[in-house]
Structures
1.
Amino acid sequence: MALRVCVFLLLSIVVCSCTRYEPTWESLDSRPLPSWYDDAKFGIFIHWGVFSVPSFGSEWFWHSWKTGVKSVVDFMKSNYPPDFTYADFAREFTAELYNPDHWADVFKASGAKYVVLTSKHHEGFCNWPTNVSFNWNAQEVGPKRDLVGDLAKAIRKRTDIHFGLYHSLFEWYNPMYLQDHENGFKTRYFVERKSMPELYELVNTYKPEVVWSDGDAGPVDYWNSTGFLAWLYNDSPVKDTVVTNDRWGAGTSCKHGGYYTCQDRFNPGKKQNHKWENCMTIDSGSWGYRRNVDLANYLTAHQLITTLAETVSCGGNLLMNIGPTHDGRIVPVFEERLRQMGEWLAVNGEAIYGSVPWSHQNDTLTKGVWYTSKKTDDGGTAVYCIMLAWPENDVLKLGSASPQTGLAVSMLGYPGLVKWTPLGGTAGIQLQMPVISAAKMPCRWAWVFKLTYQSV
């Protein structure tokens, strides 16, 4: 009898660990999100393509040109001959200064735990030597190299960062897509011959742990997104670790997929019921690199850390975008911001990585204070109070924190305890800021207090 019970339990474990997902949203949405993604909290987005050559306006340069946006039309008239086409930009997408090892080192220094590289944007140019694109790819024209593969190798060789890929489902001016669109998406020439074969090729070749889909120009049935996701979760080489977003066709955003992006720069300011991601840009006006950007358009380190605190406190991940140049450089302002994020996370990462939302996301009394939390080894709770601005009178009043017996308060990166006193009643405490010299200040922008509550 004991042997039979053991065999039954063993078989049950095997069955439970071999869940098969059906190509329906009900089944696919039931898949648990791999835990590494929620723990990671912070990633780097990279928009790089032929649009990096004109580097004017935004990564939507081609579409803006074709649809008559005046600034773009005037730019082309002033700088290029009348017969110049967008395809002619590809030969100038040279990437001669592209050093994937340097990129990997910068990303590691930023404190990011995952990276998502553009494999193909809406322009249709593929940054890898795909078998389903005639010559509109980085191996055949421009760089003459595998931009995706080179970065994947560098990331995996030099860091423990998870490697991911962005892929646009549709292409603005691909003749097959335009034909399917003209046919009311009743035909699927583009999906069957181009878009879906690319996705399978990318996953099988580069094994990305994030598949970041974009472009809802067409219904889900047209794209057969559920069929691809069922294969991805069941049979792909990354089936156990891959995470996906929610942009898999019209109507899926913020409703289906592994985690929700909802819209670009989504930052709701309150806790969400489903795992989500805030994808945003250091250059507030563009995802791709642009030469006509003003300094004021670059978010400061303080603004970026503020966005990180707001996002993580509400249960989200921050995916922060940079745009490399046509020749493969991460320009100094982007590198500086990445390294500044890493500098801050080196001190305060305990409050970010692996954290969960607390009962309060921001403070009820003082603005510019956000909370995260973790369980302590002894069963208590560590609450992390992220203070975005130093209080003028050196006293921080926290309406959300309770003055429980045994509460210990410290500042991350600074030795010793921080003095606290009750505000009065059953809720609220105030912290007396420690006297710290400039040389010993643990960080430059935002400061984190750790409130350790004992188990009850």
Note: The radius of gyration is 25 Å.
2.
Amino acid sequence: MSLDIIALLLTVLSLGIALLGLREYAEGAFQRRRLASRSALEDVERRGNRPLAQLDTLVRRTDLGKKLEGRLETSGVRIRPSVFVVLMAVAAVVAIVFVWYALAPVLSVAAAAGVVAAFLAYLNRQEERRKEAFTAQLPELARVLSNATQAGLALPTAVDMAADELDDPAGAELRTAARSMHLGQSFESAVSDLRERMPSREIGVLISTLLVSSRSGGALVTALRSISQTLESRKETRREMLTILGETTATSWALLVMGVGSLFMLNFMQPGTVRTMTESGWGILVLGIGLALFVIGFFAVRRMSKIEF
């Protein structure tokens, strides 16, 4: 069987899996609406027998699957772990086929690794964005809790009220904590889980204050108002720092794009050059060193511009 037939079969298989993944993603978006009807249980049972649902069960049983599910929930990406894995696998296969014919077979492995890294980087970026949005809502959260406790409400009730008043992601996270307390979880355990889902210095200070107050009492209203003012100042500082570092972040990504783009430009100017280079050990060594330097430059710029707020 020739390479052209293999590439065609891989492409058809990838497109089929991609269409299946998109179909499952679209159906998952309307799952809550279907559950509201009486036929929802039958629909869930049918879906549980589908191959992708069975794959989702297998993925969630593994340690990596559990970690992936937790990261998807933290990032706010509303897809199942199996769908994420399938889409990543399909994109990796497509990248392998494309790079195999566009550049060289040796680089197709690096292309697949790059696709996996890109998916994980996207997931990490979504997590950071949601954490930043949650951190930006902390001053308002502290004010709502302060007003509620000043009115004589208990802390669990104040958290439940704040969940209704605040937008997502703070509202969604507080609703999760409130549901946990309604099911019997203690206040200390519920807010500790919240801190684990949204780790930051700001939420750590706020939750530590709430825990100390719930255990030993104290001037909670005064403390929350002081924390609200402090968090407001830190929010402005974070926004200024992110604006300053925006150019550095763009530079680091430009380095990585230049490294990959240079290969395509070289192959465009002289077709077959990259494939010829990979046919010799010295050529592979030169390509490896060049790509490694670009990757090192990317991570070096990112590391030097990383500031812990």
Note: Residues 1-124 form one domain.
3.
Amino acid sequence: MNFKLLLNILLAFLLVSLTSCPGEDEKYGGREALVVSYNVENLFDTVDDPAINDEEFLPNSAKKWSQDKYENKIRNIGLVISRIASEYRAPAMIGLCEVENRGVLENLVNSDVLKEFNYGIVHYDSPDARGIDVALLYRPGEFELIDSHKYSLELTDPQSGQKFATRDQLVVKGLLLGDKVHVIVNHWPARRSSDAGNNSPFREKAAQLTRWIVDSLLQEDPEARIMVMGDFNDDPTDESIVDILRAVKTPNPAEGELFNPMAGMFESGQGSLPYNGQWNLFDQIILSPAFLNKGEGSVYYHTAAVFKREFLLQQSGDYKGYTWRTYVGNNYHGGFSDHLPVFVIFRKN
């Protein structure tokens, strides 16, 4: 571990201890909660699982993945979350993408910088070939878990006709600051060279499933508070988001539309991952209109942001200014992820 990273970890310990004091929930005459979405990029352990294609992250692979590298990855992801906690507050919920199994989640929440927050875990094994799953961490006291389940999505390769499964969509119901909310954690199919522009039939199918889940919840309760989060592998302006999911940038959405606080951020040039010198904003937290209601006793949307800090970026070399990744190809860089976390702050009167 280099000196700069060690210093960052020590600083995070100090700041978290100073900010995690009794009464921290009382702000602005009410309570506040922070929700994070973070693609942690290949959080794999070192154990061979014969049920999935995890060969890339084994000790005998070209990457030479090792226990030391795995533990460093756990420390790094924990550091990112603890830095968010130190600058704002400890996240009430964290939607994660690209985790291999429940074991890596348990290692993460029990790591030195996170164990004091006592995060709970919601996770299901996914049928994805590589075994990468989505998950939700939640902080008891700010979020009370009621129920959870998953929806699977089977796709068909248009060239071969072969069917395959992608990541499940995780649906969690609970009480955020005492108000019932529904959380849908996504990791839509990745972009491929065969995509027509930015459009993909695979992501369209994923968007259709997500929209069906949203509509089902709204049919039960038109005022349902729903947040749709994760790595969509599309920007806020792409067809899957705007036309199928029907998420728009206006805080006064029309009937049936969702509010996407990340849309305006993307138009201003902000992003969560760089590619070919441009920033994409694949990581988003999208909200049902009920979150715009600031009525007495209601949890409502306050603000959103990309957590972009210098320590998460390469400081030199060919990738200066890009996200500081664990690997670039098979070259170990010892960083965090190719994505930056995004978050939304909610308040309650």
Note: Helices lie at 3-19, 67-87, 102-109, 201-220, 239-244, 261-267.
